From TrEMBL:
This is L-threonate dehydrogenase. It comes from Pseudomonas hefeiensis. It comes from the Bacteria. It catalyses: L-threonate + NAD(+) = 2-dehydro-L-erythronate + NADH + H(+). Its EC number is 1.1.1.411.
Length: 302
């Protein structure tokens, strides 16, 4: 296992910041970049090393976690105007964590190989709370040498790291299956709560019973408390599932494979986004249902 002298985390959002903190707790040398100055300052206050530009820091890095939203942002960082891929030292490892298509993962990996840079196609799951605790699930594929070089850092941010082969794309494809289930479960949880509330059920009692019954899911148990608190601050936003379920459907379209539940859930999230809810927590999809009185936030009058 090769010693690590410098790790970068690009994207200090709800997931990336938790990952950067986990790396710091493990005693690893880590710098962080985000376009938001206040986020960089917060990271600095916690003992991290914030950077305002990427080129020089990237040139000194052994590992680079890219924790952004999509393939376009990942490619822009690596090959766009800043072009940090050309600045990375040969043999360094890019750990691409965004939810992207398998085809995009293969494309990015191929372009990095032209610079003699390794890539782990390593989408993440678990949400902000598990990111903060260093307990993410990582679905990774890539060269054995990349896994060996990244082993210590991956152990710091994840409870489970699945090695899914040596070719980029395999990690991303399994992540899309996960997102299919996650999006459908959130949409189903929203529909079930809306239906129960409309039929006169007490929301708190409804949550308590279902979370201890056969109808429960991880997403129901995790997201419905946000609804009960009237708290729609985005841990994972509605627009994330507009994007991710769109990726799932695009890949199924290419394979001429039917995904009726995914298509229905995608339409629900698109309706919520079109109604101005795109930046709210994904359980805000419940607001598309008419004629129900949802619980209000504690500081709001009902």
């Amino acid at each position: 296992m090769t010693a690590i002298s410098n790790i970068g985390v690009v994207g200090l959002g709800s997931m990336g910041l938790g990952m950067a903190r986990s790396l710091l707790r493990a005693g690893l040398p880590v710098w962080g970049y985000d376009i938001r100055e206040d986020v960089r300052q917060a990271f600095s206050a916690e003992g991290g090393q914030p950077v305002s530009g990427l080129s020089d820091s990237a040139a000194l890095s052994d590992l680079l976690f890219i924790v952004v939203v999509n393939a376009a942002q990942t490619e822009q960082l690596l090959f766009g105007e800043q072009g940090i891929a050309a600045r990375l030292r040969p043999g360094s490892v890019v750990i691409a964590c965004a939810t992207i298509s398998a085809a995009a993962a293969r494309r990015i990996s191929g372009r990095l190989a032209e610079h003699q840079v390794l890539m782990l196609d390593a989408p993440i799951s678990g949400g902000a709370v598990r990111a903060e605790a260093g307990e993410l699930t990582i679905m990774a594929s890539g060269p054995q040498a990349a896994f060996e070089r990244a082993q210590t850092a991956l152990a710091a941010v994840a409870a489970k790291v699945y090695r899914l082969g040596e070719e980029a794309g395999q990690g991303s494809q399994i992540k899309l299956v996960n997102q299919l289930l996650a999006g459908v479960h959130i949409a189903a949880a929203a529909e079930a709560m809306a239906y129960g509330i409309r039929q006169g059920c007490d929301p708190e009692a409804l949550y308590e019973v279902i979370s201890h019954s056969a109808g429960n899911s991880w997403m129901f148990e995790n997201r419905v408390p946000h609804l009960l608190a009237g708290d729609y601050r985005p841990r994972s936003a509605v627009d994330i599932f507009v994007k991710d379920l769109g990726l799932v459907l695009d890949s199924a379209q290419e394979a001429v494979f039917p995904l009726p539940l995914t298509a229905s859930a995608h339409q629900m999230f698109k309706q919520a986004s079109a109604s101005g809810l795109g930046r709210e927590d994904d359980i805000a999809v419940v607001k598309i249902f008419p004629g129900i009185n949802l619980p209000a936030a504690a500081n709001e009058e009902i």
